[in-house]
Write a sequence for this structure.
């Protein structure tokens, strides 16, 4: 499962006139290739109230992976993100298309970052803007969770670049570090996950952004089982700046009569 939280939250930062580039990151080597899969997730509050469900759809065509996370909220809102990337010696980002609409969100979002064509498009108030944007090879929109499965969990820090899509696209960085070990259970059997902390680096514009959104974006948390067979467990973060912290986590199927 690839990451979406930082990209979704950063869409509100489009109004900022300039971002500080905090330094070049490095392309991530492919250690654990992804494959075709269909997983099921739920969206909950931190108190455990279920507010939505979704599907993680992943398809493999040669060395190219198309990963789609589609979340349906019970109030009718939709969060739909499709990320395409290639798995060769390193991960190579191709495109990321993100749609967000409904009463759960303060504004509708429809953006596309297309590295193959070098184009960033965004739709605001029904008007679509396309801008040519030169993207370095370390851009990884929508891929943080996948990349964290392929780095040393004991590394001091892993950085990736993110393009913030708007009429004036900007390049910023995410800093990802191990936050600690977290216990969980499978069928009553104890297991252990690694909690990765994902921090949005605003550099010199932090003092400009904070007054616009009330505060700097909160860190995001990604729980993974690491090792020879890494696996996604849970993500926690806001889907938009200033929004509540929600969880997206894997869920198993239930059988029997469904009560409406």
């Amino acid at each position: 499962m690839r990451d979406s939280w930082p990209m979704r939250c950063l869409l509100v930062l489009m109004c900022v006139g300039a971002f500080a580039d905090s330094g070049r990151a490095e392309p991530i080597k492919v250690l654990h290739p992804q494959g075709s899969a269909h997983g099921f997730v739920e969206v909950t509050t931190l108190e455990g109230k279920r507010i939505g469900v979704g599907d993680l759809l992943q398809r493999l065509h040669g060395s190219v992976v198309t990963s789609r996370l589609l979340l349906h909220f019970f109030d009718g809102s939709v969060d739909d993100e499709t990320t395409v990337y290639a798995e060769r010696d390193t991960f190579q980002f191709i495109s990321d298309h993100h749609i967000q609409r409904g009463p759960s969100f303060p504004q509708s979002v429809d953006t596309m970052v297309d590295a193959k064509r070098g184009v960033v498009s965004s739709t605001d108030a029904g008007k679509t803007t396309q801008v040519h944007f030169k993207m370095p090879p370390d851009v990884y929109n929508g891929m943080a969770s996948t990349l964290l499965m392929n780095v040393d969990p004991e590394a001091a820090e892993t950085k990736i670049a993110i393009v913030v899509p708007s009429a004036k696209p900007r390049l910023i960085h995410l800093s990802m570090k191990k936050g600690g070990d977290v216990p969980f259970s499978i069928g009553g059997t104890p297991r252990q996950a690694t909690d990765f902390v994902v921090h949005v680096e605003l550099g010199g514009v932090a003092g400009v952004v904070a007054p616009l959104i009330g505060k700097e974006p909160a860190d995001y948390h990604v729980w993974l089982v690491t090792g020879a067979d890494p696996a996604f467990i849970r993500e926690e973060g806001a889907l938009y700046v200033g929004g509540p912290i929600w969880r997206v986590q894997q869920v198993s199927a239930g059988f029997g009569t469904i009560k409406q």
Summary: The longest strand covers residues 170-186. Residues 5-250 form one domain. The helical segments are 5-10, 144-148, 206-213. Residues 121 and 130 are 4 Å apart (CA to CA).
